Amino acid sequence: MSRRRRRSGWSLGVVVAVVAVVAGMAAFGFGDRPTPGDADVSTSTSTSSASAPTSTRTASASGLRQVHSPGRVAIDEQLVPGRCHVRTVDGKAGRVLPDAACTPGAIDPAVTQSSIHRTICVRGYTATVRPPESDTGPAKHESLADYGLAYTRTIEYDHLVPLELGGTNAVSNLWPEPNAAGARGVNNPKDRVENTLRAAVCGGRVSLAAAQRAIAHDWTTATATLGL
User: Fold this and answer.
1) DSSP codes of every residue in 17-60
2) Other CB atoms within 10 A of residue 113 CB
3) pLDDT per residue of the chain (228 residues) written in tens, 0 to 9
Protein backbone atom coordinates (compact mmCIF):
# COMPACT_ATOMS: atom_id res chain seq x y z
CA MET A 1 0.00 0.00 0.00
CA SER A 2 1.33 3.43 -0.86
CA ARG A 3 1.84 5.83 2.03
CA ARG A 4 1.61 9.58 2.06
CA ARG A 5 4.05 11.79 3.95
CA ARG A 6 2.68 13.13 7.15
CA ARG A 7 0.87 16.40 6.82
CA SER A 8 -0.80 18.62 9.35
CA GLY A 9 -4.14 18.54 7.46
CA TRP A 10 -6.60 15.73 6.77
CA SER A 11 -7.38 14.20 3.38
CA LEU A 12 -9.96 11.66 2.21
CA GLY A 13 -7.24 8.99 2.36
CA VAL A 14 -6.55 9.75 6.01
CA VAL A 15 -10.25 9.64 6.85
CA VAL A 16 -10.51 6.23 5.19
CA ALA A 17 -7.43 5.10 7.12
CA VAL A 18 -9.02 6.18 10.40
CA VAL A 19 -12.15 4.14 9.67
CA ALA A 20 -10.07 1.13 8.72
CA VAL A 21 -7.88 1.36 11.80
CA VAL A 22 -10.76 1.85 14.20
CA ALA A 23 -12.73 -1.02 12.64
CA GLY A 24 -9.90 -3.51 12.19
CA MET A 25 -7.34 -2.55 14.86
CA ALA A 26 -9.46 -1.63 17.85
CA ALA A 27 -7.37 -3.84 20.09
CA PHE A 28 -4.12 -2.03 19.23
CA GLY A 29 -3.57 -0.16 22.52
CA PHE A 30 -2.48 3.44 22.81
CA GLY A 31 -0.03 5.03 25.21
CA ASP A 32 0.84 4.20 28.76
CA ARG A 33 -1.83 2.51 30.81
CA PRO A 34 -3.71 4.73 33.29
CA THR A 35 -2.09 4.99 36.69
CA PRO A 36 -3.84 3.31 39.62
CA GLY A 37 -5.39 6.65 40.53
CA ASP A 38 -6.66 7.13 36.98
CA ALA A 39 -8.27 3.75 36.54
CA ASP A 40 -11.85 5.01 36.77
CA VAL A 41 -11.37 8.04 34.54
CA SER A 42 -12.46 7.88 30.89
CA THR A 43 -10.07 8.81 28.10
CA SER A 44 -9.93 12.29 26.59
CA THR A 45 -12.84 13.29 24.38
CA SER A 46 -10.89 15.93 22.48
CA THR A 47 -11.65 16.04 18.75
CA SER A 48 -8.36 17.65 17.73
CA SER A 49 -6.58 16.04 14.77
CA ALA A 50 -2.89 15.17 14.46
CA SER A 51 -1.00 18.32 13.63
CA ALA A 52 2.11 20.36 14.07
CA PRO A 53 3.00 20.78 17.75
CA THR A 54 1.66 23.76 19.64
CA SER A 55 5.22 24.57 20.67
CA THR A 56 8.61 22.86 20.50
CA ARG A 57 11.76 23.51 22.52
CA THR A 58 15.01 21.61 22.69
CA ALA A 59 16.47 22.44 26.12
CA SER A 60 15.15 20.82 29.29
CA ALA A 61 16.46 19.60 32.63
CA SER A 62 16.21 16.03 31.33
CA GLY A 63 17.94 16.88 28.06
CA LEU A 64 14.86 15.79 26.09
CA ARG A 65 12.95 17.63 23.39
CA GLN A 66 9.95 19.57 24.69
CA VAL A 67 6.68 19.52 22.74
CA HIS A 68 3.44 20.90 24.12
CA SER A 69 0.57 19.03 22.48
CA PRO A 70 -2.17 17.99 24.92
CA GLY A 71 -5.02 15.96 23.45
CA ARG A 72 -3.49 15.39 20.01
CA VAL A 73 -0.52 13.73 18.35
CA ALA A 74 2.02 16.32 17.21
CA ILE A 75 3.94 15.55 14.03
CA ASP A 76 7.28 16.91 15.18
CA GLU A 77 9.39 14.74 12.88
CA GLN A 78 9.09 12.96 9.54
CA LEU A 79 10.06 9.29 9.51
CA VAL A 80 10.70 6.99 6.55
CA PRO A 81 8.81 3.67 6.36
CA GLY A 82 11.02 0.72 7.25
CA ARG A 83 13.94 2.82 8.50
CA CYS A 84 13.18 2.37 12.21
CA HIS A 85 13.97 -0.84 14.10
CA VAL A 86 13.12 -2.03 17.60
CA ARG A 87 16.02 -3.15 19.80
CA THR A 88 15.34 -6.45 21.51
CA VAL A 89 16.84 -6.97 24.96
CA ASP A 90 14.72 -10.02 25.82
CA GLY A 91 11.90 -10.61 23.37
CA LYS A 92 10.34 -13.46 25.32
CA ALA A 93 9.99 -11.23 28.38
CA GLY A 94 8.79 -8.23 26.36
CA ARG A 95 11.92 -6.19 27.07
CA VAL A 96 12.08 -4.26 23.81
CA LEU A 97 13.36 -0.74 23.16
CA PRO A 98 12.51 1.72 20.39
CA ASP A 99 14.95 2.99 17.78
CA ALA A 100 16.69 5.91 19.51
CA ALA A 101 17.09 7.74 16.20
CA CYS A 102 13.35 7.56 15.48
CA THR A 103 11.90 7.69 19.00
CA PRO A 104 14.29 9.62 21.27
CA GLY A 105 11.50 10.63 23.64
CA ALA A 106 9.93 14.03 24.29
CA ILE A 107 8.28 15.76 27.23
CA ASP A 108 5.61 18.37 27.86
CA PRO A 109 7.12 21.70 29.03
CA ALA A 110 3.95 22.31 31.03
CA VAL A 111 4.98 19.52 33.41
CA THR A 112 7.90 20.61 35.57
CA GLN A 113 9.28 19.68 38.98
CA SER A 114 7.40 22.61 40.49
CA SER A 115 4.10 21.64 38.85
CA ILE A 116 3.98 17.87 39.47
CA HIS A 117 1.44 18.18 42.30
CA ARG A 118 -0.86 20.08 39.95
CA THR A 119 -0.30 17.74 36.99
CA ILE A 120 1.06 14.18 36.98
CA CYS A 121 0.53 13.54 40.69
CA VAL A 122 -3.14 14.53 40.47
CA ARG A 123 -5.72 11.76 40.08
CA GLY A 124 -7.04 11.69 36.50
CA TYR A 125 -4.28 13.82 34.96
CA THR A 126 -3.44 11.52 32.04
CA ALA A 127 -7.06 11.52 30.85
CA THR A 128 -6.90 15.30 30.41
CA VAL A 129 -4.01 15.12 27.92
CA ARG A 130 -4.44 11.73 26.20
CA PRO A 131 -5.56 12.01 22.52
CA PRO A 132 -8.77 10.29 21.35
CA GLU A 133 -8.71 7.18 19.13
CA SER A 134 -9.82 9.27 16.15
CA ASP A 135 -6.51 11.11 16.38
CA THR A 136 -4.21 8.19 17.22
CA GLY A 137 -5.58 5.79 14.59
CA PRO A 138 -3.67 7.20 11.59
CA ALA A 139 -0.56 7.71 13.72
CA LYS A 140 -0.60 4.06 14.80
CA HIS A 141 -0.85 2.95 11.17
CA GLU A 142 2.12 5.07 10.13
CA SER A 143 4.21 4.10 13.14
CA LEU A 144 3.87 0.40 12.29
CA ALA A 145 5.07 1.17 8.77
CA ASP A 146 7.95 3.28 10.07
CA TYR A 147 9.13 0.35 12.19
CA GLY A 148 8.40 -2.26 9.52
CA LEU A 149 6.10 -4.17 11.86
CA ALA A 150 2.92 -6.05 11.09
CA TYR A 151 -0.11 -5.42 13.26
CA THR A 152 -0.77 -7.76 16.18
CA ARG A 153 -3.31 -7.22 18.92
CA THR A 154 -0.62 -7.21 21.63
CA ILE A 155 1.40 -4.31 20.21
CA GLU A 156 0.87 -1.11 22.18
CA TYR A 157 1.22 2.33 20.60
CA ASP A 158 3.18 3.61 23.54
CA HIS A 159 4.68 6.79 24.90
CA LEU A 160 8.40 6.26 25.53
CA VAL A 161 8.26 8.86 28.29
CA PRO A 162 4.76 8.13 29.63
CA LEU A 163 2.13 10.77 30.19
CA GLU A 164 2.29 9.96 33.90
CA LEU A 165 5.90 11.20 33.89
CA GLY A 166 5.20 14.32 31.84
CA GLY A 167 5.72 12.69 28.45
CA THR A 168 4.09 14.34 25.46
CA ASN A 169 1.92 13.28 22.53
CA ALA A 170 4.42 13.54 19.69
CA VAL A 171 5.80 11.27 16.96
CA SER A 172 9.23 11.54 18.62
CA ASN A 173 7.77 10.04 21.81
CA LEU A 174 5.47 7.35 20.39
CA TRP A 175 6.28 3.90 19.00
CA PRO A 176 4.70 0.48 18.38
CA GLU A 177 5.90 -1.56 21.37
CA PRO A 178 5.93 -5.36 20.97
CA ASN A 179 4.79 -7.32 24.00
CA ALA A 180 6.07 -10.42 25.79
CA ALA A 181 5.63 -13.83 24.23
CA GLY A 182 2.23 -15.25 25.11
CA ALA A 183 0.75 -11.88 26.06
CA ARG A 184 -3.00 -11.64 25.59
CA GLY A 185 -3.33 -7.87 25.42
CA VAL A 186 -1.33 -4.64 25.36
CA ASN A 187 -0.43 -4.48 29.05
CA ASN A 188 3.32 -5.05 29.17
CA PRO A 189 6.35 -5.01 31.54
CA LYS A 190 7.07 -1.33 30.85
CA ASP A 191 3.80 -0.36 32.55
CA ARG A 192 5.11 -1.50 35.93
CA VAL A 193 8.27 0.56 35.47
CA GLU A 194 6.20 3.64 34.64
CA ASN A 195 4.07 3.27 37.77
CA THR A 196 7.13 2.72 39.96
CA LEU A 197 8.83 5.85 38.61
CA ARG A 198 5.71 7.98 39.01
CA ALA A 199 5.32 6.90 42.63
CA ALA A 200 8.97 7.75 43.27
CA VAL A 201 8.66 11.19 41.65
CA CYS A 202 5.42 12.06 43.44
CA GLY A 203 6.86 10.75 46.69
CA GLY A 204 9.91 12.97 46.41
CA ARG A 205 12.42 10.12 46.13
CA VAL A 206 13.48 10.90 42.54
CA SER A 207 13.42 14.13 40.55
CA LEU A 208 11.13 14.39 37.55
CA ALA A 209 14.03 15.08 35.18
CA ALA A 210 15.99 12.06 36.41
CA ALA A 211 13.00 9.76 35.92
CA GLN A 212 12.31 11.13 32.43
CA ARG A 213 15.94 10.77 31.42
CA ALA A 214 16.22 7.21 32.75
CA ILE A 215 13.11 5.86 31.06
CA ALA A 216 13.89 7.57 27.76
CA HIS A 217 17.41 6.13 27.75
CA ASP A 218 16.44 2.53 28.58
CA TRP A 219 13.20 1.63 30.35
CA THR A 220 14.50 -1.87 31.10
CA THR A 221 17.21 -0.44 33.37
CA ALA A 222 15.44 2.70 34.60
CA THR A 223 14.55 1.47 38.09
CA ALA A 224 18.05 0.09 38.70
CA THR A 225 19.63 3.29 37.40
CA LEU A 226 17.56 5.30 39.87
CA GLY A 227 18.12 2.89 42.76
CA LEU A 228 14.46 1.87 42.99
Assistant:
1) HHHHHHHH-TTSEESSPPPGGGTTSPPP---PPSBS-SEEE---
2) 12
3) 333 344 344 343 433 333 343 344 444 455 554 444 343 222 233 333 455 555 556 657 888 999 999 999 999 999 999 999 999 999 999 999 999 999 999 999 999 999 999 999 999 999 999 999 999 989 999 999 999 999 999 999 999 999 999 999 999 999 999 999 888 888 899 999 999 999 999 999 999 999 999 999 999 999 999 999
